[in-house]
């Protein structure tokens, strides 16, 4: 039970649970927006009464387009409403705690190369 509690209390698990719940709620809003606004606009632009009429033979292209639009909108909303603000709050919290963000690998490699050169100079070039 102790291991399960530790697993549940990890930040990633909590973040995932919140994202799923909020994503589901936003999905309903996005679904209504796509059904009520985007689909009629696409259908009107194509000269159709309904986006479901947009077909390529037996394949309902309009439904696929609507699903892709829904996915992109849900992903964007979850990112900009949940992920980005939480990320900024964590960065601010880390700064208050004095935690320095990790540098990118290229600058780390440059630091290591500089250290190697300094050690070579101290050893008289025998490193």
TrEMBL record:
The keyword Transmembrane helix applies. The keyword Cell membrane applies. The chain crosses the membrane at residues 12-38, 58-86. Its main location: membrane. Keywords: Cell membrane, Ion channel, Ion transport, Membrane, Transmembrane, Transmembrane helix, Transport. One of its GO terms (molecular function) is mechanosensitive monoatomic ion channel activity. It is a multi-pass membrane protein. One of its GO terms (cellular component) is membrane. It is found in: Membrane. PANTHER family: LARGE-CONDUCTANCE MECHANOSENSITIVE CHANNEL, MECHANOSENSITIVE CHANNEL MSCL. This is Large-conductance mechanosensitive channel.
């Amino acid at each position: 039970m102790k291991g399960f509690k530790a697993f549940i209390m990890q930040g990633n698990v909590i973040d995932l649970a919140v994202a799923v719940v909020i994503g589901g709620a936003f999905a309903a809003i996005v679904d209504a927006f796509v059904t009520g606004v985007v689909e009629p606009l696409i259908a009107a632009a194509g000269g159709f009464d309904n986006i479901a009429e947009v077909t390529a033979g037996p394949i309902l292209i309009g439904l696929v387009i609507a699903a892709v639009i829904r996915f992109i909108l849900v992903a964007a909303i979850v990112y900009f409403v949940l992920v980005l603000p939480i990320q900024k709050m964590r960065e601010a919290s880390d700064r208050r705690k004095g935690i320095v963000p990790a540098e990118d690998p290229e600058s780390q490699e440059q630091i290591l190369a500089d250290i190697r050169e300094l050690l070579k100079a101290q050893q008289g070039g025998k490193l």
